[in-house]
Please model this.
Amino acid sequence: MKKLILIALAGFAINAMAASDGATLFKNCAGCHGAQAQKKALGRSDIINTWKSDKIESALIGYKKGTFGGAMKGIMKSQASRLSDEKIKVLAKYIPTLKK
Ligand code: HEC
Model:
């Protein structure tokens, strides 16, 4: 019984790690922003791998709250509202590392 609980806990820890990993989180963004965040999403957004972490973080929080965005902000609101503030931080740190 104890063993089972331990296994369950270990599985949970691995899941939690995967969910807070930048590369994993960014998979949900790559379709529009490009694998290296090097594209203008849907021909509209800035190329976000040139943005600093702070700017990415405040943009994502702004989309979530409805205080930031351009003509296509609805698309990003649905993306950002699925992210916890912690995941936003992880993504904001990760995206600038994609610039080659
Ligand atoms: C369905 C396509 C799509 C997906 C998926 C998507 N984005 Fe976007 N993203 C856009 C578009 C379009 C814009 C420009 C929206 C606007 O008008 O404000 C944008 C804008 C942004 C901006 C601000 C850039 C600017 O020009 O102001 C950031 C930062 C961003 N996205 C990050 C992300 C992150 C991080 C993810 C994954 C969690 C993600 N996006 C997923 C389409 C997408």
The radius of gyration is 16 Å. The CA atoms of residues 18 and 24 lie 7 Å apart. The pocket of heme C is lined by residues 28-29, 31-33, 41-42, 44-46, 48, 56, 59-60, 69-73, 75-76, 79, 91 (CB under 6 Å).
